[in-house]
Amino acid sequence: MSRRRSTCGFSIVELALVAAIIALMGLIAVPKIQDAVRMNQVRGEVRRMASAVAEARAAALLRREISAGVRSQSAGLEILDDRNYLIYVSDTADGIAGGTELNIRLFEIPETLQLKITTSPDRIRFRRTGVLDTATPNTTDIELVDSVSNRHFAFTISATGLVRMR
User: Fold this and answer.
1) Whole domain around residue 133: which residue ranges?
2) Using DSSP, how many helices (H) and how many strands (E) does the chain show?
3) How far apart are the C-alpha atoms of 11 and 81, rounded to whole Å?
4) Cβ distance 124 to 53 under 8 Å?
5) For the domain that residue 45 is a member of, what is the CATH number?
6) Which uninterrupted H or E stretch holds 65?
């Protein structure tokens, strides 16, 4: 009589095959996950900038006291270069050029993003009524370009000062 040995577990070949399948799935999934995370970060930066523009409009609209009884006359966003922009509130209608800057916040865009404003000038100014200043075109488009994926993300500021994501 011969006895058969019962086998329990998996062979080394079966384990190697499962490990290869898992590695292949990881090679496919990881770049997609990294791309999704990157696009989420870019969209977050666009939302942050649109929020900053809305904040500048609100400061002009509220005409709140900024400091020592001085009321804001204008507020806006000024693009300094393709990586930096600032939000300002000024005590004169001319904005930064004509008065004292009050309540300024400087923002920096990550290195892989490029800031473009599709209309001139590089300053967006709101009047105390919350509408765009007459020196600013009727609508202004601002976009961020991701240099890695070459994708464009933008928002529009209407003549009434409302910010709309595109």
Assistant:
1) 12-165
2) 1, 10
3) 62
4) yes
5) 3.55.40.10
6) strand 65-67
The domain total for the chain is: 1
Residue 3 lies in a domain: no
Whether 6 is in a domain gets the answer no
Q: How confident is the model at residue 65 (pLDDT cuts 50, 70, 90)?
A: very low
Residue 35: what residue type? Answer: D
Q: The whole model's pTM is what?
A: 0.67
Are 132 and 124 contacting, i.e. CB atoms less than 8 angstroms apart? yes
Q: What is the reported pLDDT for 23?
A: 94
Domain presence at residue 76: yes
Is residue 4 domain-resident? no
**pLDDT tens readout for residues 13-45:** 999 999 999 999 999 999 889 888 888 888 888
Cα separation values, 56 from 53, 74, 143, Å = 5, 9, 18
Residue with tokens 């696009």: 39
Q: Where are the alpha helices (DSSP H) in the chain?
A: 12-62
Write down the mean pLDDT value for the chain: 77
Sign of the alpha-carbon dihedral angle for 65, 66, 71, 73 = negative
